[in-house]
Amino acid sequence: MTLEADVSDLWHRYQNGLTADETTDDDEAVLDAFLEAIEAGDVRAAEKTGDDVTSWEANEWVKEGILLNFGLRQTEAREYGDVTYYDVLPLRQTEDLGERGTRNTPDGTTIRRGAYLGSDCIMMSPSFVNVGAYVGDGTLVDSCDTVGSCAQLGENVKLGANTLIGGVLEPVEDAPVIVEDGVSLGAGCRVTSGFRIGENSVVGENTLLTPRIPVYDLVDEEVYYGHLPSDRRAFTRMVESSVGDHDLFEGGAYKPAVVATHVEEQTLEATQREDALRE
User: Fold this and answer.
1) N or C, where is the chain less crowded by C-beta within 10 Å?
2) CATH no. for residue 126?
3) Who contacts 203 (Cβ-Cβ below 8 Å, separation ≥6)?
4) Count: domains in the chain
5) How far apart are CA 276 and CA 279, in angstroms?
6) Per residue in 132-146, pLDDT tens?
7) Residue 250: what pLDDT?
8) How many other CB atoms are found less than 10 A from the CB of residue 54?
């Protein structure tokens, strides 16, 4: 049987009442093999099926495998330096990172089991990458960043400090947050609820990207929800809100929106300044 078939069979048994106390050695071997496959980059929680940023689809069986590792494992006391913590999963072993030129600085870079980091990545402390996440080659995860469960980051992505990439684990059919190749996110950005950012886009500081906030794309002259097209410069602006008609809002009320324009060459150059850190 293939790994996918093994996970699907185990998921069916779990849905029919299998508990952590009832798992066999073979079941635990499937759980371990699944995590190893994610860490090797052999399987991913989502895949791109077309040319557009909207064409990403979740691999449901992969998300099921992650949920199985929660549902069919016992919470145990574990050690991280001088700290004892309790979890169903240990932290990821990092011996393979150095041979690929990937760096994780000390005192607070935390990578959970079942996360993939590519070659020539940089993780600055403190930062956190959760189970099921994929961090592509050459990507920078800066200080105080969180990469949520199943989030998919492409190659040469730059996450500014204090950036949150949200996790989407359930429902299993929902695609996670997608950040395609060459994207740069300014400090303090938040990307949540399966939002998708097209390649080579540059997002300004403190921008919130979520399907509930409209993207006013001045290039296509369209309003988008849930994604930002490729090659855009995006930033937050306030637009009039319908509740502004209420007497309580003297002078009107406003709500956040995202405005997208063509990305400019000088903007792209400004996002590449940390390349000297890799030389």
Assistant:
1) C
2) 2.160.10.10
3) 183, 184, 185, 186, 189, 197, 209, 228, 233, 234, 235
4) 1
5) 5
6) 999 999 999 999 999
7) 85
8) 15
User: Residue 242 CB: number of other CB atoms within 10 A?
Assistant: 8
Q: What range does the domain containing 12 cover?
A: 3-73+84-278
Query: Does the residue 78 lie in any domain?
Result: no
> Contact 226/196 with Cβ under 8 angstroms?
yes
Q: Long-range contacts for 183-187 (Cβ within 8 Å, ≥24 apart)?
A: 183/154, 183/157, 183/158, 184/157, 184/158, 184/160, 184/271, 185/157, 185/158, 185/159, 185/160, 186/160, 187/142, 187/160, 187/161, 187/162, 187/163
Given a cut of 70, is residue 199 above it in pLDDT?
yes
Q: Write down the pTM of the prediction.
A: 0.93
The average pLDDT across 102-118 equals 93
Q: Is 272 a residue whose pLDDT tops 90?
A: no
